[in-house]
Design goal:
alpha/beta, Rossmann fold, globular
């Protein structure tokens, strides 16, 4: 007879999964490069799994559902892209959102992706990589407010990529040298994000089962 308690104790714990969300879908975007850069920093560690969640792969309609995703007892939304998106968010333990600045805030496609999910965001940490002429400070600030409303834990440390990085990208000269100057910020953000990921995942596991 197998002792289930001992067997469970000897099984390796599942590594936490961080979803890196690419917050722009424009054809000439820098967001994909920034997302790959921060994902490589995460993959260099041996204590985390990484999934890049590109909003191009989830072409969701603009939110027009009858009910909020936060409404109790609602039926799941039927759109296949929304269902896949919700599944990815539910499977992740924490997030990094990569965002440009559009008119002092973040893109509508990213807001739409946030609004289609609720419970799956709850009690999970999120860090940010912002970029613009001002380092993406303003869209990150707005994202923090939305994250709190989604019952997430936005961490203080963030990565702000300034005008010089975007200029290098637009010139076609390559951005490796410019991005390298922000490696320390990326490491500091990831350290903090993974600490919160471990703590909040343990806390979620202690929540009573809904009946």
């Amino acid at each position: 007879m197998v002792n289930d308690t001992c067997a469970a104790a000897t099984e390796p714990a599942r590594l936490p999964t961080i979803g890196v969300i690419v917050g722009s879908t424009r054809p000439n975007r820098f967001a994909g490069i920034a997302a790959d850069w921060i994902a490589e920093h995460l993959r260099a560690r041996d204590d985390v799994l990484v999934r890049v969640l590109d909003l191009r792969d989830f072409p969701m309609p603009f939110f027009e559902e009858t009910y909020s995703p936060a409404a109790p007892g609602r039926e799941p939304f039927q759109n296949e892209h929304v269902a896949r998106w919700r599944g990815e968010i539910g499977a992740a333990d924490g997030f990094v959102i990569v965002t440009p600045e559009y008119n002092r805030s973040y893109p509508a496609v990213l807001k739409n992706a946030l609004d289609y999910v609720y419970v799956e965001w709850n009690r999970k940490p999120v860090g940010f990589v912002g970029y613009s002429a001002t380092g993406g400070v303003r869209p990150v600030e707005h994202l923090r407010l939305a994250a709190v409303e989604l019952q997430m834990a936005p961490i203080r440390q963030a990565v702000h990529l300034p005008r010089a990085v975007i200029a290098a990208f637009r010139s076609g000269a390559g951005v490796e040298d410019e991005l390298r100057q922000h490696d320390a910020s990326a490491t500091a953000m990831i350290d903090e994000l993974l600490w919160w990921t471990r703590v909040l995942r343990a806390g979620r596991n202690e929540l009573p089962v809904a009946r």
